[in-house]
Amino acid sequence: MKKEVFGNGITNIHVNGKDISVADTPNGFQMERHMKREFPVVVAGKGNYLHLSDGRKILDATSGAAVSCLGHGDQRVIDAITRQLTSGTPYLCSSYWSSDVAQELCKELIAGTDKKMSRVYLSGSGSEAMEAALKLSRQYFFEKDKASPRVNFIAREGSYHGNTIGALGVSGHLARRAPYEPFLMNVHQVSACYAYRQRHDGESDESFVARKADELEAKFQELGPETVIAFICEPVVGAALGCVPYVPGYLRAMREVCHRHGALLILDEVMSGMGRCGTLHVWQDEGIAPDLQTIAKGLGGGYQPIAAVLISEKVMKALYNGSGAFVHGQTYQGMPVQAAAALEVQRINRKDNLIENVRVQGALLEKTLKELLGDHPNVGDIRGKGLFWGLEFVRDKATKEPFDPKLQVAQQVHDTAISEPFNMTMYPGTGTMDGVRGDHIILAPTYISTAEDIKHIANTAAAAVNQVFAKLSAAS
Ligand code: PMP
After folding, report:
1. Mean model confidence pLDDT for the chain
2. What distance in angstroms lies between residue 204's CA and the mean position of ligand 1's atoms?
3. Ligand 1 centroid distance, CA of 221 (Å)
4. Is 162 near ligand 1, meaning CB less than 6 Å away?
5. Is the pTM of this model over 0.90?
């Protein structure tokens, strides 16, 4: 491992010939900026806008980190939270109490899965939900056979499942893993489902998906199929690659491989789920169901920190028939105030038909982005689903060669967009796959966005992108 330290104190690490910058993570940048106190200060939020201490009004085109699906300051959610607070029970010890709101929320969530999932485990963040899902999946086999040889997880390159040790262990985000490698689980990886960089010339969806299924099958055979606990993936990759959707048929094919070997399928819909991609759960579009699923961001819409694991009947049965308990638990789980917020967010989604709006406005966002940026020489790919769209930037469109990491192109686009005259958020990221480091940005507008908002977002994004690349080309 070779290290290279840039002037700004950011360290570049070379692992097995791959070039990984610790600053590839938004956190890397944040740390540096926090130290310099460079962050703009938000004093209020209303609808799609954030109001800053310097008087500026910023259009939140990313719902924060794809979280604030209802926008900011929705009075109905504020009222639901206030009611719960004034009832005197924002918190209850979940070891011996439940609450009406937590029970209602769980019922609402189960109903939203068309009864494909049967139980809900509430937690406080996506990482915690992923930890719980990993433990549940192992416990599923342990309950059936205390000497179960199932000890291996298969996850994917270019993935992100959280920052805690277990969740990071199954993540394929090289930059976020790099400093902590010695502590991480021994997880086996297959490639992501990343059509832009992996599809062969003229390759159909069917053959692309068949190739991925063969690869997963080969990984099972290499490890011994009887040793695999689960295959884990994000149906639409968020932070790690920038809104890379599954190729149609992929989730079904992965489901089949898992079935064949009696392994579980864990879908991480922390970022892509809860309506963000145009169906409540992404898997509903593929006509399959996972054994375990994590959800978070759009669940509470940012009004409270809340996440959950949705658990299938199959996994629940093994627990009931075994020890009858999940050996896990956290102080701040299922807090009534969290549940009240999430319940109201989900009811509003349903009552206001917002997921239908995600589909309609998502189609408009796709069309407008492609019209405005499809021919841009440095926009290699425009991909996504629902209101979850990514732009991948390349130095050379023909070869798909990425930019020099030192240029921090995605960060430059973000910095430009958030400044005058654009005043709009664009979520930057840098994924590292097969040693290729790609710059991308994510757009994830709120579910309440109108056609007017979407056109404004696409126009502003295009203007910010044009300005950054005009400057870069003038400087080169
Ligand atoms: N999984 C995915 C797919 C995510 O996008 C994230 C957060 N970006 C996480 C897990 C972790 O969630 P949290 O930050 O709430 O711990």
Report:
1. 92
2. 31
3. 30
4. yes
5. yes
